[in-house]
Amino acid sequence: MTAFAPIRTAIGSPRGGASAAVLVLVVTCALFAPLIAPYAYDIQNLPSANTQPGAAHWMGTDEFGRDLMSRIIYGARTSLTVAVTAISISVAAGLTLGAMAGYFGGWFDRAVTAVVDLTWSFPEILIALILIAIIGPGLESTMVAISIAYLAQFTRLTRAQIMALKNETYVEATTNLGAGHFHIIFRHLLPNALTPVIVAGMLATGDAIILEATLGFFGLGAQPPTPSWGAMMSSGTAQIFIAPWIIIFPGLAIAITVISINLFGDALIEALDIRNRLRSV
Amino acid sequence: MDASVTRGDDLVTITDLTREFSSGGGFMKPRRTMRAVNNVSLNVPRGKVTGVVGESGCGKSTLARLVLRLLEATEGTVVFDGKDLAKQSQGEMRKLRRRMQMVFQDPYSAIDPRYTIRRALLEPFQVQGEAKTAADAKTTVDELISMVGLSPRMMASFPHQLSGGQKQRVGIARALALRPSFLVLDEPTASLDVSIQAQIIDLLETLKAELGLTYLFISHDLSLVRYFCDRVVVMYLGRVMEILPGAQARPRHHYAHALLESNFEPDPTRRKVVTMLGGEIPSPFATIPGCAFAARCSAASDLCKRERPPLADLGSGHMIACHNPMD
Fold it and tell me: Do B127 and A183 touch (CB under 8 A)?
C-alpha cells in the first residue's frame, strides 16, 4: 500500500485521466507562463483593442489591446498561487486545531468548536468579504481571507477523524508502551486522519479558485495590471456586447479548471474509498 | 490469605479500588454516576495466573485498565512491586510500563493499520527512547517474531495482510518486547476462532514458563479460565463476589456457583441440571446498599439487602463476599 497507488488508480479511470490531463495543462501554464504565452500580459496596444479572436490573437484582445490568451495563461498563475497557498495554510492550521481539539477535548475543544461552528454558519464568500473589508484588498489579503474562510471545514473534519481514531485499541496499546501525547498524535492519529483532509483540501482548492475570481471580480483581489481571471471577467462586463470574448474566455478557464479539480477529486475519493469519512463532517 | 502467600509474593496488590464514570448531564438533566469497579481488593501472586471472570459489563476490562493505570482510579490504590502507581510521575510511569504490559481483546485494531509488523515491533523501543542500530533492530524483530511462532518473512507485512491469530501473536510479541514481568490479558482469545484460541493459549502458557511471567487473565470463557488459571476471581456488577484458590475449587457464593455451573458440558452424559437465575442485572447506575446479587439470590435474607457483605477469608485463600454462603 504505497501512497501513490490510489492516485494511479484515479488517473486510470476515464474521468480521473481526462481531468488530470487538464490539470497538468493548467499547472504547466502557471509554471511556465513566460515561455508559453505568445505576448507579454501587460503591453497595451490601443489601436488593436477589442480585436476578435483570429490568427494573430487566438482569443482576441481586451479593451487595452492586450492579448487575452497571454493574460489567461498568466492568470492561471495568480489563481493557482492564491488558491493553493490559501488552502495549504488553511489545511495546516485546521489539522493542528482539529487534532488538539479532538484529542484533548475539554474547554479547548469547546472554545474551538464554538468559534468554528460560528464561522461555519456563514457562507465562505461572506467571511472573505468581511475579512477583506477589515484588512484591505490585495493579493495577500485575498489569501488570508480565503484561508480563514475555509478553516472551519478542515478543523471540523480533522476533529471528527481524531475523535474516532483516538478510541482505537492501538492508541491504548501504544500509551501502555509508555508513549506520550506527542507520539500518539503525530505518529498514529494524524497519519491516519490525513487522507480525507488532504482530499477535502483538494476539492476546496476548486472552490477557492472561484472565491478568488469572485473577489477579483469585485476588484478586491489582485490589483491591475496583474492578470486575474475574476478581474478580467469584471472588465469584460463593460464590453459584453462589443467584445463578448473578453468575459467568455476567462470564464471558461475558471469553469474548466474547477470542473477538472472536482472530477479528479471525485476519482480520488473513489480510488481511496473514503466517501463515508468525508461525509462525517 | 494462604500462609504460604505472604505479601512479598504478590506482584500486584489492589486495595479498595473504585472507578466511577458519569454520563448525561446538560440542560435540566442531572449527571448520573455509575461505579464500574466498586471497592475491589485483590492480589496477584507472582508467577501465577489470576483469572477474572464475570458477565459483560461487570467491570472486568475497567479493572484491567485501572491495574495498568490506563485509567485513573477514583479511589483506592494499585501497588505494583511495592510502588503505588497513582503516585508515580509521568517519567517514572513510563519506566514502570516496561514491566507491565497488556494483550488486547481485539487484535484487528491493536496494530496501527499504517505500520508494518517490523515497525510495530520496534515501536516499544522507540517510545522508551531506546535507539537501535539497523543490525540490532533486525535481531530484535527476528527474535520477537520467532518467539511468538511467526515467520520472519512477515516483517514487511501490514496488519491487514495477517489473519486474526497472526495479529494476536504480533500483539503478544509487542507486549513482550520490553521484557515485562506482568501481563494483563484482556480476553486475548475472545475474537478468535476456537482452533486458534487453543494455539494462543498454548503460546501464552509456553511464554509464561520460559519468561517467568505473571498473568492477570480477564475472560468470560469459563472453561478456558478453569483450564488456564491458578486462581479465579468472580466479579459481579463491579464487585468481587468470590476468589477461588484453585481452578477446581468448589464455588460457595450463589452467584459464582450459578456462573460456573452454566459452563457448557460437551459430554451429554455428564450434563446436569443448571440452576437458572431469575431476575435481571440491576442498572449499574443504581446504588445498592446491600449485596449486589441480593435481588436475584435464592438465599437472600434481609441482611443481604441492607448490608454489603465484606470479602471474608474461608481459609487457604478462598475468599467470599456472602452473608449466607452455600455449604
Answer: yes
